[in-house]
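Q: Okay, next protein. This is RCG21015, isoform CRA_a from Rattus norvegicus. I've checked the sequence twice, so it should be correct. Can you predict the 3D structure?
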Amino acid sequence: MTAPFFSRGLLLLVGLCCLLPITKTKYEDLYEDPNIDPFQCRKVALTISNISITLFKEMAQLSVNGNILFSPIRVIAAISMLSLGAKGNESKRILEILRLNKTGLPEAEIHKCFRYLLRAIHQPEQLSPLKSGSGVFIHQDLTPVDKFVEGVKNLYHSDIVSINFTDCRRAKTQINNYMMTKSNKEIKNIVKNLENDTYMAVVNYIIWNAKINSDFGCRSVKQKDYHLEQGMTIKVPMIHIVDLNHLFRVEDLSSTVLVFTLLASNFTTYFIIPDIGQMQKVEQRLTYPHFRRMRRQSNLRMVNLETPELSLSETHDVESMMNLLGITYVFNNDANSSAVMNDTLQKSFKMVSKVKLTIDDKGSKPGRSTCFKNDGSVDVGYVQFNRPFLIFIKDPTNDVPLFLGRVVNPKH
């Protein structure tokens, strides 16, 4: 009988929430690397987007009325990184299930593309409000294979840290302190528990504090009703702005779509609000080509918008997410099946994924008390995101999907 994913010898903890900083020189090198073809890497980005919709739909069926939020690039990159530690057909099998083999690129080129694509979330702090990174913690008595170490560091921008997992309580404290330091104290106690037979932990994190602003200085925030499921209503801060944005209908999804770029970033944000009672049908019908058609359908116009401030933090069992994709096994019990360690591993493992996203107007320039007044000569659209909606955020430079989810409670 084969062992669960990545042999029983690992704790793979993927928490999504902050940045391992890189220098500006390294950042620029990601664009100038002659060994990376950006056009080919867009195929990888497209594949990540497609598989992320599949994953989201599976998650939506399991959680019909709750919030869903994850980072597709972070989750898929973490799984792809682990394929570096598989030998023989197991590595290919992971890439096949992720559909990355459909890109037509050799396995080595796929990993290089992740190095290129991840640069969207590894920008220097002064250039982007988005922070992200990862760390791999390995038991000090184990010997990582050089190929795995080099791939983790050079292709997936991850630190490798030797740690003593024999003392679980101390190991947990070390990992939590490491994450707290890297996140400038924004992340505390990300690791809740460790199994006694843990020999490896992978921590992946992403956090984004986005801002909404109006070029016309027309903005206000008021407490208003937000309608939850089953007739429940709560009061939340609602941002009211009048600005130029893309607003249109997507009839085959029975939804209204707002597309805009948040302040201090070039990331494209899709807010999709289904007609009342249509959320589950929209989730079932949704495909990534819908977003590609939305881009062509975009209609820039003056929009009178009301949207809630968002403060979202979600944690997922990544092993369960992989099971939803059909990834159950990677390594057999025998030592020759693992290219990660030169030791036999027969330990249990656990995977956790955490992502945090806030969207508000704090730090923006104060709005004016008087606002845009329409004399009838301007077509002004009006939309309220005062009930559950879908959110999709991507880096338009290479179409990397950064966040995907369903917002039921904006303050959950």
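A: Here is a summary of the prediction. Confidence is low (pLDDT under 50) at residues 1-30, 330-337. Residues 45 and 277 are 32 Å apart (CA to CA).
Q: Noted. On to the next one.
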